[in-house]
Structure formats: structure tokens, C-alpha cells
Amino acid sequence: MSTGATGDATSTGIILPEAPGRPPRLGSGKPVDESTESARPASALGLFAALAAAALPVVADPQVGSDTFTPKYFVMLIIAAVGVVPLYRLARSGPLRVPARFGVSFLLVAFVAALSSAVPVEGLFGTYLWGTGWFFWLACVGGWAIGATLDEHGRVLLIRGLLGGVLANALLGIIQVYGTKLDPGLFTAGLLATFNGQADGFLGNPIHLEALLMGGLALVLGRACRRPWPWALWTAIIALALEMSAERLAPILFIGLVAYALWRYPWRRVLIYAGSIAVGYVVGDRTGTLSVVNRATTLATARTTDGLRLGIWKVALKADLHRPLLGYGPGQFSHATSASIPASLAAQLGPDRYFTDAHDILIEVLTTTGVLGLLAIAGLVATSVRSARGALLGFAAFTLAVRLIEPLNVGTDPLAFMAIGGVAGTFAWDRGRQLEPGNIASRMVTAVCVLAAVLLGSSLLIGDAFLYEGALHYSVPDAQTASRLLPEWPESASDLARVYAYNSIVHPGQGWLLKARAAELAALGREPTSPGYWADLGNADLDLGHVSLAIHDFDRSLNLAPYDDEALTGLATIAISRHQYETAFTEEQLAYSLYPTTRDRTELRQIEADLHH
Description:
Blueprint: H1 34-39, H2 44-55, H3 69-92, H4 97-115, H5 120-125, H6 134-149, H7 152-182, H8 206-226, H9 228-245, H10 250-264, H11 267-286, H12 291-320, H13 333-337, H14 343-349, H15 361-385, H16 391-402, H17 413-430, H18 440-473, H19 476-485, H20 491-506, H21 510-526, H22 531-543, H23 547-560, H24 565-577, H25 581-594, H26 601-612
Helix pairs in contact: 2-7, 3-4, 3-6, 3-18, 4-6, 4-15, 6-17, 7-8, 7-9, 7-17, 8-9, 8-10, 8-11, 8-16, 9-11, 12-15, 15-17, 16-17, 18-19, 18-20, 19-20, 20-21, 21-22, 22-23, 22-24, 23-24, 24-25, 25-26
């Protein structure tokens, strides 16, 4: 949200007094020659910030196991690497040393929490498709340091990069929905496909598209209110894409945007801005492409917010009492809560489904990094924004506002922290302080960090490409290569087990089954707290005829998640084979009572008949 009712374009829109001897700055309230400002040589960090802001929410590759996650994780690692030296330098001295030290403290707490967690590697990397481990937080805090180090021209470039990422996602979201209506055959796979009828852009999920586009509407607010007509079209396009996402939090957040605009700008200009949003929503609603999806999503959102989210938040807060200081480790929310989920909540979730994320950034941080982590990250944000306002703050505020009821995301959240850093950087300018260009040592450290990030990120991308090929063609060599290249995530080993199991059907023999069991053990070695992998191992042992081992595996699964459907089914199957019909009936009846829509009532009746017979 840009401020300053004068007619000049701003970068952050924050009005600051000028330091002696400097030319008028963008956002200072004085006339600025934008052509001259644009002609200034851009710093390397400013160019990187712009490129990262544009690339992170857009980069994707349909030829990897996760077309949106792994490519974004790669860029996220680069942001983390580039932010290390600026964070260190900001924390040493200067007007931003307090928020920088809060950021360093948070990273230290999160690192210790990760190493002391049940699965340290998962604490560092996060889970596959989520990635919200310690490296994710390093990218967030490193992104903050990058934004805080930028000069005024660098912040202009950052805003332009953010706008590029927002508009690219908005346009793709619109193409996805209307393209599906015009040619369903073409728009059914890859990036052109919708997410169950909803637009998801380059982000892989409509809720992440909603977060980015809400930040985008805040980002253009000042521009749209100062120069209404040139920006009215882009505002309407962003609003139309939000309607295509069919997420329901955005209309509530619009009220805050318009209220702020009325406070800062003449009502006639605000009317054009608000009208542009209304036009985008009305056009999307009247096209008829999403009317059914919208109604279903509205009901689902209300049901899950009132039921699932509140239920898991209660479970998480109770779990926090057991590890209040450091939490359970970044990215390990599921481990913290799965064993304590009550039957009613398990029934709402569905069979073998668990919350990987708290769907609330505050509870997620509290559960995974404890009170110490929550206080540190809160201190970073609070001391960065103070009484500031502007486009970058608006982008961060409305992007993260969605995170109060939705999961974290590697494709958007580091940019929100980079924007907060950009807001904090204005205080350094206000006090006439700016970081001097880095010396040779700092550049060498940055080069080493970036090289390490590129090597690590490349191995993840290449491994994910092999994972895709292995799963698509049941190719043993590809699946084996993926498992070797992706030791950070158990999914690669679990997928290898599925490939082996498939080959055991095509080429019967215990050799494939033994290999499948070994791959399941490898998956468990990487994530021993997963009830699903224990249940998979139980099925592998059952296929090999190792009944006693299978019972042990299923019991371990139920210890980690008392209502795991696969484990209950496995124990019932074993009980039937042993003619223990009372035990089988108990297990099957529990599973049916929890998940009636996915169970066969006939099977339960047959067990009951066998029991009475």
C-alpha cells in the first residue's frame, strides 16, 4: 500500500526526511524525475532482489515430481545463500542491528530445534512438497536482510520484481480457468490445468495464489490511487484472478484495503480502485466458470475453518506444553500432533490424512520452534515495521495475513520477509546510514554460499526429475537414481518401493518383494515418525508372509496415529486370516465408524456373520 497523496510514483511510499547532500528520494514527497531514477546504475543486490522476486513465485517445471515445489525450493536456497552476508553485516552494527539480531536469534533457535528433533534432516529441509524446514526460515530471514540492505533504487527494483511475479500468476490463473472452459482437452495437465476447477497459477495451490494476489492488490494500491486509470486494468486483472482461485478469505481482506485507501487518498480515486476490484470479481462470477466451485469452496472453507483448523489448533497448543521452549523442530508439525488427534478430528480429516502444517503461521512457529522462536520472529517483524507504511509493507502484511488460516509456502513467504526488510531499510536511510559495498572476503563468502546452494538445489531438481520418470513409467533405474539423489526426503525411497512392488506383479517373485521391503525400511530410516511408512512396511511384511513383523509394524503405526486407516485394515486382515473374528470385527468397526464413505459395509457384515457363526 503506497502512501503519500502527492502525484509522484513511489517505491515504498514511506515519507522520510531527506539527508543533507542527497538528491530528492522516491517517496520523500518531493518531485522526482523517474527517468533519471531509472537511469541510475542498479546495484548487483538490487538486480538480484528484483530477479528473485519475479522468479520465485513463477519458476516451475512440469517434468519433475513436483512441477512447482522443487524449482521454487531451488530459488529459495539461492535467496538464503545471498542473504547470509547481509544478515551478518546488519547484525554487527548500524540502525538495523536490533531486528537483525532478532533474526539471527530465531535462526539459531530453529537450528537447535531441528538438530534436537526426532528427524533432524527433516528439521533442516522440511517435508517433500512443503519444504518449511530450517532452510526455509534461512531464506525468509536472509530475504529480510537482502531487502533491508537495498537502497531506494533497489527497493524500486524489488517492487517491480514483485509486480512481475504477481501479474504473471494472475494471467496464468485466468488462462487456466477460461482455457479449461474453451478447450478442456488441452488444459488438463501441467501448468495449464486447474486445481480441482480453481486457478492456482504457478504456485500449485489456490490458497498460495490467493496469498500472492492479495499482496499484489496491496502493492498496487498507492499507484492505483495516484494514477487511477493506467492501473485500473491491472487491478481488475488481479481481482479477476482472485475470483478464479475461488478462495474466500480475500473478500474480507478487501475491506481493510479499501478502508486504508479511504484514509490516505481522495474518495474519488479510491472509488476507481475499489470499482476495479469489483469489476474483476463480477466478471469472474458472471462468466459461470466457477459458480459451482465457488459455492462448494465457500461451504468447505467454513466447515474446515470451524472444524478442522480449530481442532488441530487445540491439539497443537496442547502438544506445545510438552516442548514449550524449542518446539518439535521446523517442518515437523505432523509429528507433534498426529498421535494426539482425537477420533472426531480424524474422521473429519479422512483416512490416512494428517496436518503437515498448522495452517496458522503463529501456531506453526510456536509448535516447531517453541516460545523462543516465536518471540524472536515477532521481534524481527515488530522492530522492522515500527510505524511504517507503504507498498512493501502492504504486500507483506496481506500476504502473511492469509497465513493466519493457511499453510506456509516456499514460493511466497520469503518474498513477504524481503518486503519487510525493504521497509526496515528505510530507517537506515532516515538516519543517513547505508551499508558500504562488500569487501573481497564478503564476496567470496557469498560466492561459496551460492555455489553450495546451486549444487544442493541442482541435486534436488535432478533427483525430482528422476522421481517423475520412475513414477510415470515404473522404471527401476530412474526410481533408484531418485532415491540416491534425494536422501533428504523419504518419498523417493517410498516411491522406489512402489516400483518394486509393481514389478513383483509383472514379474512374480519374492526378490522384488524383498527389495520393496528394503526400500520401505529406507523410507522409515529417513522419517521414523511417519505412521504411513510404518503401515506400508506392515503391508510389505504381510506380502512376504511375515505376519508377526507385520503386526509389529501396524502397531507402531497406531502408536504414532491411533486411527490410521491402513494400519487398522492390516490388523483386521491378519485377524481374519487367523480366524480371530472378534479382533477383526473390532478393528473393522472402528475404521468404518471413522471413515464410512470409504469403507465397504458388506465386509463388516461378513466379519460379523463369521463371528456369530
